[in-house]
Amino acid sequence: MEWAELNYWISMAGTVAFAITAVLAVTPKGVDIFGAAVLGIITAIGGGTVRDLILGVPVFWADDLSYIWVALGASVAAFAASALFKRKEIYSLMLYVDAAGVSLFAIQAARKVWDLDFGLPLAPILLGIVTAIGGGLIRDVLAGRQTLLMTRELYAIPVMLGCTLFVILLEFFPMHRTVGGMVCVVLIFLLRAAAIHWKLAVPDWLATSRS
Amino acid sequence: MEWAELNYWISMAGTVAFAITAVLAVTPKGVDIFGAAVLGIITAIGGGTVRDLILGVPVFWADDLSYIWVALGASVAAFAASALFKRKEIYSLMLYVDAAGVSLFAIQAARKVWDLDFGLPLAPILLGIVTAIGGGLIRDVLAGRQTLLMTRELYAIPVMLGCTLFVILLEFFPMHRTVGGMVCVVLIFLLRAAAIHWKLAVPDWLATSRS
Amino acid sequence: MEWAELNYWISMAGTVAFAITAVLAVTPKGVDIFGAAVLGIITAIGGGTVRDLILGVPVFWADDLSYIWVALGASVAAFAASALFKRKEIYSLMLYVDAAGVSLFAIQAARKVWDLDFGLPLAPILLGIVTAIGGGLIRDVLAGRQTLLMTRELYAIPVMLGCTLFVILLEFFPMHRTVGGMVCVVLIFLLRAAAIHWKLAVPDWLATSRS
């Protein structure tokens, strides 16, 4: 399997996981199948859409609707078979696939921003974060849930670290960008997987408590 | 009266209804006249604005500010005379005018996306929905209200059905697009009117309950 | 010191104040340093970003990242030394610097819209308001706080008045645009400073109470 192909399959698996974890996140609040599908699609494509609007380029899904079809199908499946997807081993698997998707999408985004020579060196990191968490933020706001930014989950911080490293690698080792990208995807994934596995959170001294 | 003219008057009436129902929705939460006007304008033009940003075309109101003037006037009127507009028969009338506006705006949006050859066949349906409910979603988020997506009101589902039918008609009967558009506007309106009249909601088996 | 230079320094001071008041607003809800920095940056650049997306022009910070660097630094400082910045005299100073920033950003925005000949005469006022309060609205929505629109704080109304006057001056005295702009910046600042100093709010008869 070639790299581009592997890339594509991880993207699709990540899209599935984004949509499924989204639906499982909102069903406890009471939602119908239409709302679940809309929120699943928004979670899957929202971050990349905001990134593309800020970059001033066509939204990424306009030319390849498979992202939306896959998110739609996964959302409906997650709604219809929520008991199945809530089973501990399957939900856990989804979290790791979600982590793989986040890692890949963030580094893809950083590279896209870099190639457009847009707001270097900060924008690739910022828009990598936006791509990774933007859809989930919009979902939580629309669903009336507390957003990720107000929790201490280690979700966006691995993305920030990975994108920062990637920008450094692109600056100093531009000839190794493909390998550098892979290393950073793996780094984000491992940090995120560690956070899932050991339920890591931002330590007390880097957070304020609700007063 | 010609079709284009009828179109224009329904658009303006729909804009009035969007703004008035928006102001009536937020006044119980406590709001001043400035906040009411801003939320009324956002409800009236927010969905179409998001659609145009995603399409990468100039926002529709930049060349015809009458949408904003009308929304502003209607919002201030609704704020000043909220007792009048809350009267059962007038509020009820506003709901049906709102339904007419939603129907027209959704099909106009779907046609705009189709004509731009943007993300066919899914995007005309998605952006028809965005146009119809986007402004109301932004209003509810800014006002701290539960959004439409978390209720089981039959509001967006008629839009989805009408836009889907419209895309099918455009694909298979491209020579009858004007008639097809009218049929779909009427279909959405009738479904929505039925939902208002009989207080229809999404049935239990298509929804999860708040746990 | 030249006008352009003064302009730049007020912009930077305003950016600092936006970020610091943002962080102080969200820390009581419980947030980690990453969330605080993201919310500080969003508050500082969010309004201008939404304005530029609606205008269809490149976002203002892509070519001058100093806005983001300054917002990032100020956010981290406010998080790390929140006790210092919460001290009455310093917090009070920040409110006035915030007011200066709001005044300048709003009139800069109105002039940008005017120069693009975009949706005159309403859009310069609307987008002046969006620029001034948009970032704060996004912050409050993401942080789960009540937004400015639902309070009766005199924050956006001075901006509206100043931008309206500016549009009138541009229309009737186009040769005095620089002086006119300064007058309007000062007007907004004085109105906002009066609101801060005397804790002015929108009067009862222009607001509904929470029912």
Question: Would you spell out the secondary-structure blueprint of this structure?
Answer:
Three copies of one chain form a homotrimer.
Chain A (H helix, E strand, L loop, with lengths): L2 H24 L6 H23 L10 H15 L1 H4 L2 H28 L6 H22 L12 H17 L4 H21 L14
Helix pairs in contact in A: 1-2, 1-3, 1-5, 2-3, 2-6, 5-6, 5-7, 5-8, 6-7, 7-8
How would you explain this protein's 3D organization?
The structure is a homotrimer of 211-residue chains. In chain A, helix 2 (33-55) packs antiparallel against helix 3 (66-80), helix 5 packs parallel to helix 7 (156-172) and helix 7 runs antiparallel to helix 8. The first copy, chain A, has eight helices and no strands. The mean pLDDT of chain A is 94. Chain A is globular. The first copy, chain A, has one domain (3-203). By secondary structure, the first copy, chain A, is mainly alpha-helical. Chain A starts with a helix and ends in a 14-residue tail after the last helix.
Give the N-to-C terminal Cα separation of chain A.
53 Å
User: Which H/E pattern describes the elements of chain A?
Assistant: HHHHHHHH
Q: Assembly state here?
A: homotrimer
Average pLDDT level of chain A: 94
Total individual domains of chain A: 1
The biggest chain-chain interface is: A-B, 29 and 26 residues
